[in-house]
Amino acid sequence: MLGPGHRNFPGDIMNKDIFEGKWEETKGKMKQAWAKMTDDDLMEIEGNHQEIYGKLQKHYGYSKDEAERVVKEFQDRNR
Fold first, then answer.
1. What average pLDDT does the structure give for the chain?
2. Residue of 9, 47, 53, 54 with fewest CB within 10 Å of its CB?
3. Phi, psi dihedral angles at 78 (to 5 degrees)
4. CB distance 9 to 65 below 8 Å
């Protein structure tokens, strides 16, 4: 259960998709959107959806805010 201080992160929706069994579809779309991400990166993201921000920062040089923005845009396009 989420406490009163829980903040919704953009990745929370992605996490919901993973647990609803949509991970394979989401992973394929992520590979199309961010080709520099490796299968190992995607496995780490599967285990902890917050990892996506660090992976995007590492591979694309995004700031934290930019990474959050592009993840949100990705999610909006893929709903």
1. 81
2. 47
3. -115, 30
4. no
